[in-house]
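Can't attach files on this board, so I'm pasting raw text. These are the components:
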Amino acid sequence: MVTIGDVARAAGVSRSTASYALSGKRTISMEVRERVNDAVRELGYTPNAGARALATSQTMVIGLLAQFLEDEFAPAMLQYMLGVSDTARELGYDILLVTEADGARALRRITDSQMVDGVVLLNVAQDDVRLPILRAAPQPGALVGLPGDCSGLDVFDLDFEEAGRIMVNHMHRLGHRELILVSQPEHVVERGGAYVWRLQDAALQQARVRGIRLHTAFGESRQPAVGRTLHALLDSHPSATGLLLNNEAAAAALPTVLHERGLTVPADLSVIGRYSDEFARTFSLSFSSIESAPDRLGRMAVRQLVRRIESSDTAAEPYVVRFISPELVDRGSTAAPGSRRDGSHSRRPQ
Amino acid sequence: MVTIGDVARAAGVSRSTASYALSGKRTISMEVRERVNDAVRELGYTPNAGARALATSQTMVIGLLAQFLEDEFAPAMLQYMLGVSDTARELGYDILLVTEADGARALRRITDSQMVDGVVLLNVAQDDVRLPILRAAPQPGALVGLPGDCSGLDVFDLDFEEAGRIMVNHMHRLGHRELILVSQPEHVVERGGAYVWRLQDAALQQARVRGIRLHTAFGESRQPAVGRTLHALLDSHPSATGLLLNNEAAAAALPTVLHERGLTVPADLSVIGRYSDEFARTFSLSFSSIESAPDRLGRMAVRQLVRRIESSDTAAEPYVVRFISPELVDRGSTAAPGSRRDGSHSRRPQ
DNA sequence: GCTCCGTGTCGAATCGGTTCGATCCAGACA
DNA sequence: TGTCTGGATCGAACCGATTCGACACGGAGC
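---
Top answer:
Structure tokens for the assembled complex are below.
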């Protein structure tokens, strides 16, 4: 492998001069600079990342902690990851991907060994065990997902409260007075996925304000269980006219369930989901939905993280907690209630 | 940050002794070893990754090149990535994730700068521009996907020829004599996704052997286009009794299409797909399918790569090209033809 | 009593960069 | 003529590990 020493020799200068010629941190004569550049091109020199990291204490690598817990919804996770990865590269950083189950240990490992200049945490729980470790680390961190305590960290998330209110208001405006909300599996909530509560509580609150009956339930993350749950919910609330889905697997399962019951959307049932547009297009879901914008969140997190990395010596800027405002993407799956034939959801064939 | 010098001082030994005590590469007295270990624990010492990489020329990092091209099917990609990442960690390696559009440039960057000990390439095309760069690099590489020229590299892929034959044979055994095969978008083929041809050609060949009429077509990767294509195919081949899908988006769109046409599987139409079990469960697809096992492929690639990294000085083992045998997972979406009512596929409501 | 040997430890070199301080030199200025 | 200034370059130190060669010491063998 060709080193800066080889370049210096080829250009007939010292190693330090070659280094300054390349970095531009000191004035170097035009002539020498060109000789060095020529040598670099001829020899095909690329600085050794480890050596540079050792000398500068900068790795130009960002750690991305993505936990694939049970019931995790993979496609959404992937969109977060791509948002993070693409943005990082634009800003000159590479991504160290960590998918270890024991996120806390992994975080300690990559920060202590100084493999990364900063860290993005996905899937942050209410009381995330990784946070104390991140706060103690010398590198800055950015979160995607709102924990209970945001101190000392930059946090980005969708405004799930507002999402819940928008769903309810939209249905109310159309005339619906009884709705069903299907959330993520209870697992997710227990594990600290606070966003499930945030959406559900806000929806319940808003339903009360609007005078709407709102039935809530957890859905599974897999077929066939989630399909059964949807059937059961429609069975037990026959007068509900609208369905709110904060559960991607339920959204994916719904077309089949509707088919089995012979229901048509929005004539028989109005539906609003909460997932990304990308997801909707790929999986043929034509339900109106709250855009969850995972790529935008990943992008924002990295931007802020890099800003903090690169200004780490200046006086600390204040930490930010930023929410993306939800947007309802209308795909025509909602309408005024009552166009249904018989006033109750068709039974599924047993 | 605490260095090995701090540990050595705390233990009252030299830096080299501390290093040997930790690595065990020379005999060290029990007593000193314990003093060093205590110091490590007390001070919370973790070796600096950059310094270690510089000294040992080993980074313990594997590069993962995942290109997200247009029409790429994200969930499958994610499963590959997880297979690679989890296996790497088990073997002591971290993952540098590269999603840059210009894969060749990215590959050169990470190999030249010696950020990685080896590389896994996903999504390898027939005539992949990254391969010459990988061959010229000092680090070994493993491919997931079969290129035209496998020389000097370890290659892993599903046996798509066999997959095509299995699909056709299964349908033939049930009595089907006219089938439709929907492949990935033409984009993918033009870009060098040879596996599309491999499956299709083998299926055509086998259909000829069995005396089956096989209609082939490219499907899009998105709704609503892919749904329209499915409708058009069913319209123009009304006597076809079975559908083969080498296109995940088509599989995801099919339930809705069937619903719109009032078709039931397998009574009206037999269906076999080609995707992973994980995908099927998450997206509520109850079609029988050829398991594409992305996680297994990722795992195999990393295993082989690590073997090669760690034995790089010994005489080069021969390079391997290994195919996973496809397995048909029966989810009950195939049956003998002819249970259909009217002998043609119902029209969709216009 | 002397050499020989294995065990345990240390000092110094090395990996490949960056960066600080010093030096050299030419031109400006008093 | 001597001093000052600033541009251009070099040498050496440093980042934090690993590793090679040397060496001290105590016991075995002659």
